[in-house]
């Protein structure tokens, strides 16, 4: 929760969603979303960008990568298939060689038996005695020639080829693995209807904006500060630390250099610009106050009383809302800074449920637009009451605001007038600072804006200041014209009285 003005505005320029992206945005919802739903528009724009990138860039690029991966896997798979094929062919060739060698051995055996048979015959012996038997000699020559041609076959070659073939076949498990990998790497199918889905999301967003807009315009009374003061018997308090022991808000304020700002600077900045702020409620019901933790319902025990404004959202605990502009402050996510069902949310926010446990945050957070200060407050049980009181009194006198001391049980005492007071009296007359006063407050505090980090906010503040100066010029001119008219009338009256 931010106690002065900004907490966590995104550093990057937020993307907007053009009405042209939607076929028929609900009437008025586009302008409404530009004013109240910058964060929702940004989230939608990011979603559309991611969707467009997914189908127009990411998926095509991924499919290209997958194709390259499939090719690489196929090459590895092919290497194993080639090994299996080569080993199989090698085994076939070795077996063929063995078969041919064995056939040759059978032929040699037959030829040798034929030669031996011829040699053992009586007829061969007679031929040899008379110089014959040449045919047997020819057969022997044929035998030795074929034996030389057949050569020697190493039987271990079969064993080796079989082992190589078996080892290659073991690669089939690896091939199956690559097949699964290739299947897993198949192309992502692009949904051709993605653009229709994008249009539907945009239409849904603007439809929701139209609903929020309609409810926002209908429940103005339910969002009114004074209405809720009376309805729930509470005060709306914007805490500003005036005690040395109190923590600063620099850790959750991205736009303002709060470490350099005094509490007085923060108060002047707020009443000068009247930006949308976070406040907490303080119950004025004594019995309900007793159920609250001893440390109270507020983050700071001093600050401004808000007597008028419009409630944009309400939370039971510190929601940690973020600033989108001077006028817009909302939850970190969601379609709009305008919270719907505000009656229900306000009832939960100001109730005692979940706020009586010392271990949890005891202050609620209520976001108020166009806040009007009606006074300053100091809690009667403030830890360093005596230290804070003089500073708060001095600032209240400077801004011409009453200083109200609030007790834990809800009783109030107007320290400025020295009397007890009521909530009706406290919030009855929100302070309307003059144009000149607002200019003075802003001029004194605009130097604390971190212009280097948030130039858009600095420009917004400068625009607000320029508008006030222009308004002052117009007021001064009107005042001068009236005075001139008065002087002329007086002169005329004097001339007429002399006749």
Oligomer: single chain
> Would you report the number of β strands?
9
Number of helices: 16
Helical amount: 55-70%
What ranges have pLDDT less than 50 throughout 5 or more consecutive residues?
2-23
Order of helices and strands: HHHHHHHHHEHEHEEEHEHEEEHHH
Give the CA-based shape. Answer: rod-shaped
> Distance N terminus to C terminus?
72 Å
What is the gist of this entry?
The protein is an alpha+beta fold and 499 residues long. Helix content is 56%, strand content 11%.
List keywords for this structure.
499 residues; alpha+beta; 2 domains; 7-stranded mixed sheet; two-stranded antiparallel sheet; 16 helices; 9 strands; 56% helix; disordered N terminus
Describe what you observe in this structure.
- With 499 residues, the chain is an alpha+beta fold.
- The chain folds into two domains: 19-218, no CATH class; 219-483, no CATH class.
- Helix content is 56%, strand content 11%.
- A hairpin with a 4-residue loop joins strand 8 and strand 9 (419-421).
Give the SSE map:
Blueprint: H1 29-36, H2 38-119, H3 122-129, H4 134-150, H5 156-169, H6 172-184, H7 194-218, H8 220-223, H9 225-232, E1 234-239, H10 263-273, E2 277-283, H11 286-290, E3 302-315, E4 322-323, E5 329-330, H12 342-350, E6 365-379, H13 385-398, E7 403-406, E8 412-414, E9 419-421, H14 423-427, H15 435-445, H16 455-498
Helix pairs in contact: 1-7, 2-4, 2-5, 2-6, 2-7, 10-15, 15-16
